Amino acid sequence: MGRVYKLGTIAGQHDMPVEDYISNWTNYGDNALSRITKGTTVVEIPPDVTTIELYYTGYTIATIAALLTLVLRGYHVILMEHSNSTGRYSPVHVMNHPLFERLKDVLDTEIQSDISL
C-alpha cells in the first residue's frame, strides 16, 4: 500500500500544508494549462506514493489541469478545498462518482496525445 503525498497546485497564493508545489504563482494571462500540465509531469513525486491530496487555490484551470494529469498518470487524487469559515482544508468527494469514471475514460482517449505523461 502506497502513501499519501500532499501537493499544492500553485505556491504563493495561499499557505497550504503540502510537501511540494507544482508551480509558482503565474499571471492569469499565462498558459496555466500548459504550465501546470508540464509541472505535474516533472514534479518529483516519490515512487511509493499512490494517493495525492491535491490542495488548490481556486485558480480553476490550474486545478483542472493538475487533476487530469495526475489521474491520467494513475494516481488516486483527493481534492482538498479551503474553507474560509474554518480556515482549514477538507476533502471534496467527487472522485468516487460514476460520472467521474466516465470522464476519466473519455479524457484518457481524447487528450492522451496532448499531455506528456
What does this structure look like?
This protein has one domain (3-114). The longest helix has 13 residues, at 60-72. It has 3 helices and 5 strands. The protein has helices spanning 32-42, 60-72, 98-110; strands at 3-11, 20-24, 49-55, 76-82, 89-92. It is globular, with a radius of gyration of 14 Å. Helix 1 (32-42) packs parallel to helix 2. With 117 residues, it is of the alpha/beta class. The two termini are 23 Å apart. Residues 110-117 have low confidence and may be disordered. The chain has a 5-stranded mixed β-sheet, with helices on one face.
Features:
single chain, alpha/beta, 32% helix
Brief digest:
Helix content is 32%, strand content 27%.
Task: Describe how the helices and strands are arranged.
Blueprint: E1 3-11, E2 20-24, H1 32-42, E3 49-55, H2 60-72, E4 76-82, E5 89-92, H3 98-110
Parallel strand pairs: 1-2, 1-3, 3-4
Antiparallel strand pairs: 4-5
Helix pairs in contact: 1-2
